[in-house]
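I would like you to sit down with the record closing this message with an eye to the fold:
=====
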Amino acid sequence: MRKSVTETRQPANGGETLASIVYNKLLEDILRGDLEPGRKLRLQALKEQYEVGHSPLREALNRLSANGMVVREENKGFRVSPASLEELMELVRTRCWLEEIALRESIRHGDDRWEERVVLAYHRLSRAPRPADERSFNTNTEWGVFHRRYHLALISACNSSLLLGYCAQLHEQALRYRNLTAVVAYRKRHETDEHEAIRDAALDRDADLAVELLTAHFKVTADIVMSSGALT
């Protein structure tokens, strides 16, 4: 069974409102690029596609607007947020700033349970299979879930739920850009080695090195996206 890229955002008790269900479906389609940047989101067409009523659909779209995935235009409805090189550069800068703070705080305050979370998250990520089909490389949802969990585990001891929320939101924004680009360059990249080096520096409590490696990790991804020619 295919796992959703929004799997980690499901409520732990399994109880979801209809608005939450359609929110997750819309978010997944935006992250995967099925709903492309700038696309007009027509309510009637979405109601038919997602088999949902007007009220939960509007609630889901308003939530997506709040986290930057959708733009709400006055008297014009909703549109998938555009994608551009300028926005990507701003996204990467902001993500580096916030995750540096979160990672330094986690290294400073992290206990044995934090270390266990980091080790386990890396282990699961390193063992997650990468797809053989090049066309599905960027939509490998199982690997994507473990990748998200690993990065959140690194900063999970920062003692700020607000900061964690912002970092999770930026992770999703970055994932959308990654999924919009060509896949060949990612196949040539040794991400497992990058993740391992960040893990080791964090567990060694070497905050400066861990931040340097994490920042480089984000910037390599951005460079690949920029060089793909998919953005202007």
Summary: Residues 1-15, 133-137 have pLDDT under 50 and may be disordered. The first strand starts at residue 40 and ends at 41. The radius of gyration is 18 Å. The chain has two domains: 7-80, 85-227.
